[in-house]
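FAQ

Q: What does a record look like?
A: Structure on top, sequence underneath. For example:
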């Protein structure tokens, strides 16, 4: 047993630094009664004045309530009442009646319950505050099938049934902008990036320019147990990337990511800035991506992609990702703006391709030693729902592992110039592919497939019905 645990740790080390508590503290939290966790947190933090109760909706947008500290125990059990129809809201928080889960059901309540280990401080708040990440349950105590977190749990359970455990990590890109300037003119704002002739990719001096903010982000991540790894200056002025460490708990990895987005946004707000995860905020600059690294451990803690036989399994997983890409594209690019990101030469994939050590493809095998062999999925925009993204990635990998098909030959060089099937940059096509997909039906269930498609269709309709300022200035 000890040998297997040590072997597993070596595999994870090969992927880069990990949050070492993942094999200890997390599991300890999971066996404690959650009410005990709440009482312990309040005893350790007696000055807490309020609590933010957080539930990510179908778009990954944080909804919820503010409450007094005495409500924290209730959040653990029986739960904080919230309508199940919270998962029938569009990106603007409006009810989409065609989902069928609003007033026609009586708009019934469910119970949002605290996720073990996710009661944390909110260091950016002006007064001592806490936050708790929650998941939705029905009135009868069953996990709500509309909750994206429970979709991901279903995929993780399928891996577990096979004696397998995914190891995953997210990379998250964002721009820092002046909120008033950005909303008024679509520009970044004064002193938030050098001129267009200075991209300053990987620049340490650009990081130094925001050193106070990044120091606060790191400190807040420590306070919340979020396993931040590196922070780098990205490919455009004012663009940065925060990487999370690899987790051998896929649910924790997705939880980390929704909480990291909130942490970055709140910390930037405290500094008078806005952190935008918008997929394509500037036409002339690269978009914001959310890349996923994934490998799989067997019951002995060994990477199933290691060795010659492992490389064959890795190719099967890559084939599954490519085969299901059209079906899952709406999960990775869920918003109208995100399809602007799919441009040749932009480092956002446009063709259904994979390759080794090649950043122009959708599915990349990063350079690594044998034990750390993994796939990097480069499709998602930074504004996508991490639970849905990871469900799509792990679901596609599992499909490939089960079917044992080989992918086409890996692409060498510039994938944008290779004659391979091209992804549509039309959101309407992505909705149709998603809604008609048997794979999504098996992954999501037909009801949630319908709900998500209807929400996206209503959002697309809103953009189609909008007359742009350019149209007015041109045809006035």
């Amino acid at each position: 047993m000890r040998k297997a645990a040590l072997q597993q740790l070596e595999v994870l080390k090969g992927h880069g630094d990990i949050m070492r508590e993942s094999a200890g503290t997390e599991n300890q939290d999971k066996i404690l009664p959650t009410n005990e966790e709440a009482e312990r947190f309040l005893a350790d933090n007696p000055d807490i004045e309020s609590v933010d109760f957080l539930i990510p909706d179908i778009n990954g947008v944080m909804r919820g309530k503010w409450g007094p500290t005495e409500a924290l125990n209730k959040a653990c059990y029986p739960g904080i009442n919230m309508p199940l129809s919270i998962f029938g809201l569009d990106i603007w928080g409006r009810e989409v009646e065609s989902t069928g889960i609003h007033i026609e059901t009586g708009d019934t309540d469910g119970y949002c319950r605290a996720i073990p280990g996710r009661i944390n401080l909110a260091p950016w708040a002006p007064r001592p505050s806490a936050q708790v990440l929650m998941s939705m349950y029905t009135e009868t105590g069953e996990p709500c099938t509309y909750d994206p977190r429970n979709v991901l749990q279903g995929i993780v359970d399928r891996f577990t049934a096979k004696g397998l455990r995914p190891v995953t990590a997210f990379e998250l890109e964002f721009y820092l902008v002046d909120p008033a300037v950005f909303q008024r003119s679509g520009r970044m704002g004064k002193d938030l990036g050098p001129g267009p002739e200075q991209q300053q990719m990987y620049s340490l001096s650009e990081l130094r320019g925001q050193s106070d903010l990044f120091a606060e982000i790191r400190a807040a991540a420590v306070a919340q147990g979020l396993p931040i790894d590196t922070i780098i200056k990205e490919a455009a002025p004012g663009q940065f990337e925060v990487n999370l460490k690899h987790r051998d708990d896929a649910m924790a990895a997705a939880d980390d990511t929704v909480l990291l987005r909130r942490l970055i946004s709140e910390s930037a707000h405290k500094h008078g800035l806005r952190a935008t995860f918008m997929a394509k905020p500037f036409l002339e600059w690269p978009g914001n991506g959310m890349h996923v690294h994934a490998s799989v451990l067997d019951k002995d803690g060994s990477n199933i992609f290691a060795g010659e036989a492992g490389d064959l399994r890795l190719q099967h997983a890559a084939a599954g990702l490519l085969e299901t890409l059209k079906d899952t594209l709406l999960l990775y690019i869920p918003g109208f703006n995100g399809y602007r990101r799919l441009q040749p030469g932009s480092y956002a994939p446009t063709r259904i391709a994979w390759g080794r050590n090649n950043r122009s493809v959708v599915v990349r095998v990063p350079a690594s030693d044998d034990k750390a062999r993994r796939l990097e999925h480069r499709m998602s925009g930074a504004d996508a729902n991490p639970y849905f993204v990871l469900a799509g990635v792990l679901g596609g990998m599992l499909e490939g592992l089960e079917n044992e098909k080989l992918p086409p030959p890996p692409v060498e060089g510039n994938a944008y110039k290779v004659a391979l099937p091209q992804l549509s940059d039309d959101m309407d096509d992505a909705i149709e592919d998603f809604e008609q997909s048997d794979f999504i039906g098996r992954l999501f269930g037909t009801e949630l497939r319908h709900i998500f498609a209807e929400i996206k269709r209503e959002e697309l309709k809103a953009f189609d019905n909008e007359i742009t300022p350019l149209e007015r200035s041109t045809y006035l």
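Q: Is there anything notable about this one?
A: Confidence is low (pLDDT under 50) at residues 1-14, 16-33.
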